[in-house]
Amino acid sequence: MGRSPCCEKAHTNKGAWTKEEDQRLIGYIKAHGEGCWRSLPKAAGLLRCGKSCRLRWMNYLRPDLKRGNFTDDDDELIIKLHALLGNKWSLIAGQLPGRTDNEIKNYWNTHIKRKLLNRGMDPHTHLPSSPAPASRLANAPFASFQSSTVSFARPSPSDDGHSSSGGSSDAPRCPDLNLDLDLDLSMSLPCSPPKTAPPAKST
DNA sequence: AAAGCCCTCAACCGCATCCTG
DNA sequence: GCAGGATGCGGTTGAGGGCTT
Q1: Across residues A172-185, what is the average pLDDT?
Q2: Where in the numbering of this chain does the Myb-like domain appear (predicted)?
């Protein structure tokens, strides 16, 4: 089916945002709040698609964003969450206040993937990428997490390959596991302090 | 000092899901 | 119950910067 474009592409800017555009967007959202992304660009005087505005705000302009410097704890948490959730970046981001799904996704692809590969682990399955001796497993902190903490049955993301976007029939939102994330995570993070602070909801 | 290569991050695109009429 | 519209998510791409040769 021909999906109508989300905006009049002929009249929208694309590419990097300018300072002025940022200021307009920030000013508008401060005055009117988030929401109605489709109509926001026009109302704010921006020649941008609503999706682009939302993305810019969510990933870059939001005041509560914590940028740069992932800690080792963050790394481990992301790895564990990825083992639990797969490529559900927004869910993972939800456990890391101040971080965005895009940021985590990029960080995963650039840093953590390599980190896991260096540990001899497959970044998709979180299993040893090659038949590894037990001693090697013991060297990987996450391996112990795998075997001892994560005993839930989760079809490996790359197992079927087409788990993309969870577009499978009538499955509920998180079909793969019982997502008591808040509980499970807070009690299964051996290496991180009780940092299960809920997303900083100011006001 | 210059050229080429690699890495990182911001942004875009298309699809899936949710919500409302 | 159905259809259409809006929003959110994940994958992918391109530009810019830094590093190496």
Answers
A1: 42
A2: 9-61, 62-112
DSSP code, position A108: I
The size of chain A, in residues, is: 203
Give Cβ neighbours of residue A87 (< 8 Å, ≥ 6 apart).
A105, A157
CA distance A122 to A116: 7
pLDDT digits (tens, 9 = 90+) for A60-95: 888 888 876 788 888 888 988 888 888 889 889 888
The SS3 of residue A40 is helix
Q: Which residues have a Cβ under 8 Å from the Cβ of A111 and sit 6 or more positions away?
A: A70, A75
A6 touches strand C (CB under 7 A): yes
Q: Which letter, b or e, does each residue of A39-78 get, where b requires 16 or more Cβ atoms within 10 Å of its Cβ?
A: ebbeebebebbbebbbbbbbeebeeebeeeebeeebbbbb
Q: Which nucleotide is nearest to A15 (CA to C1')?
A: B11
Between CA A15 and C1' C15 the distance (Å) reads: 10
**Chain-centre distance of CA A167, in angstroms?**
18
Instruction: List alpha helices for A14-133, DSSP H.
Output: 19-32, 40-44, 50-56, 72-85, 89-94, 101-107, 113-118
Q: Residue A96's closest CA among A124, A71, A130, A63?
A: A71
* Residues in a beta bridge with A121: A128
